[in-house]
Amino acid sequence: MRRALLLSLPLLLLPGLALAVTGDVPVKWLDGAPAHRVETAKGQATAAQGEAWRGFLARRGSQWSARFDEATGSPLRFWGEGWPVDAAALQEDASAWALGWQILEDEQALLGLDRADLEPLALDRRLGITTLTFARQHRGLPVEDARVSLRFKAGRFVVGQFGGYPGIGTDPRPAIDARQAVDAARIALDAGPDQADLSAPELVVRPMHRATGLEHPLAWRLEVTRHDRPSRKTVWIDARTGDLLGWEEQVRFTAGTVVAVIDDRYPLAGTTTAPMSGVALGNAVSALNGTFSTPGSPPEALNWGPDGTWVNVDSPDNFGQASFSDTLTEGGVVTAQAAANAGNTEVRRTLAQTQTHVSTMVARAKCQEIDPGFGWATQQVQANVNLNDTDCNAWYDGQSINFVRQGSGCNNTGRIADVIYHEYGHGFHAWSIVQGQGDFDGALSEGLADYLTVTITGDPGMGRNFVQGNTNPLRDVEDLLVWPDDINGDPHITGIIIAGALWDLRVLMEADQGAAGIAQTDQIFFAVASYSSDIGDSYSDALLADDDDGNLANGTPNQCLIDEAFGAHGLGPGVQGGAYYLDHDPLGTLLPPDASITVDLATGLANAECAAGTVASATVHYSLDADEGVGSFDSLAMTSLGGGDFSADLPEAPSGTYLRYWIEAVDDAGGDAGRLPEGSITDPWYGAWVGAVETHFEADFEADDGAFSSELITGDPNTPGTNDWHWAEPQGGGGDPVGAWSGSLAWGNDLQVESNWNGEYQNGIHNRLVSPDIQVGTSEPVLLQFRRWLTVEDGVFDQATVRVNGELVWSNHASSNPNGAADHHIDSHWAFRSLDITDQVGPTGE
Question: Residue 553 class from Cβ within 10 Å (0-12 exposed, 13-18 middle, 19+ buried)?
């Protein structure tokens, strides 16, 4: 479990879920911006009511879906029924651009930009999809991360992207010059002349999503390449203040622990032989299958190295570049291997060179199979092996793939085929991106590289035997990680979300269609690599790749399987959480006494296009007695209002009642259709208070922190993050909500106030949040009421508690059997709770 926990209005919050691995360095950091763009239901609904979008639907039909930028109201993606265009015009570049300009002019109200703000960037015709992308400028300066594009399939316009950041008013005149920007970057990144090289800066507009809204600062953009470690960062310096706005690491790493077993992929599987291709042997060059012919007569002595036409394998001089010699007989085989008298170190480093050659060629062949026009396959790949830069690692730096020698308990990464496939996969992603459309997002790229690996091997365990002595995988893409709940500070973990969705789709497609299903899944993977700018984009790109008629509103040939696979990971509509959806707005905090209390429920199929059935009945279980156990709640059948809607009127309750309730639904086959709320294993109900209260103390944490403080009870105080209580805006990481109950601020564990925080608390620590002293006098009863968002493991492992004057008044559920305890407490809403603490109040009313 990897979750967190928060509290907002009025009072308290408790620890989140622990995770053994704290996470890798983030790939991208922008000051004040969340690591991933995550939508909220409220924000999306508000944007969907915008005048421009409603006007578009009125003109173009109602069967469109969209993913909106909530800061601007612009559609980051919109897709649907489409409309016919002149298919012949799409075949010629000039007429295709003319068609694109006409659509942008017709939809200027939705685009929000003038033609002068755009210029043609790229035209792409892969996968049967014609894509036009436009570069966004502001007064002659590039606007970073802006994406305006149009996509056509089967003679129809079907997908658009209008993320062009309308409304920029940035003054293009810098207050600091390029030299000062270089100096500022060196200071901010501790990158002196001996540590790094810096490129010439370029002025750009760098939109910044911050907690307070969207800003468009003028920035100097430059590259910082380190000498002392593998790192090449794109850096943005504020062109007015000289402050560091952010950076994005261009070097992509693989690192971690391991998982699974397949022969000949890793050291523990033993050795085998495989062809070397493109190798120069005398006057001959070997073919892809390793065959060659020479003009001489056998026997013939041959000498060659680990290099080939399509891969150049280099090993540092102090480790030794391998060279091979063997004698060829007619129709015989020559073998590249370490000398018979070689020591273990030489054998390992020779194996790294031959394995890197062979596995790079396997990855290249797979990528060419997926995309016959794959550009990187036409160039020689630089592969550096046996490096001593970083133990337990490998990386792609935008130009080469790199692998380190054995050390720190890890095998030489150049000997592990999966790691080589993964790093080559980063290159496949980078070379596949349609300019101005997709993006080299860190987590997305990690997931795509993992998928390339597992589709080559057919094994969901990626990177087996990364750690010496066992064949466990580095990552398992069968792990059910969900967007956005499982977004992690380590992009490799976040990447499992998209890798898992694609792998699950591959399994479903293979079961349905055999090898053709795998090939189609690989094409969908290619589309995501080409068009997606983050993991949240992937679902619509999968649909378009699968589409056969240029109309996404009428479904695609494999949409039900796509919805099932992607939906399980929180992407697209899907069926995450079951075949039905249950939608209920919890009752407010304070309800009027002696009045009817109405509970409403909306239900329906999670994916009506791919399933059948209805919710036949619903029941609300409730209690007006705060001491009554959940098993003794009264039950009331809800009245069907038609269309899947239900309603029930609870009995009138007197002032001072703590109302608790939960809802269950049954489908037309008599099966369980779901229950609400989900996840609160300790107290599985919604709560509300009936009547007014006399308030002794209240804090909503907006104007100030409520005079709360936090402290570390056990744990190393010198380890960052052991006391991880924050008063800040929740960012949605590690199971956190994406906003506070009211306003924008809350107290919570690890609210990701720094870029390398991931929303999860650490193992083996105990910390607490403490309220100020509160005087309540002698009135009775005394109630502690608060909104809580708690995600914590079973109490066997992790304990969340509420104490008043040192006395325990609440704790999370702990299973009676500690073996395999899995009753984790995961709030899925801001839960109202009321605790009677009369007996805990001190003699002075404190």
Answer: middle
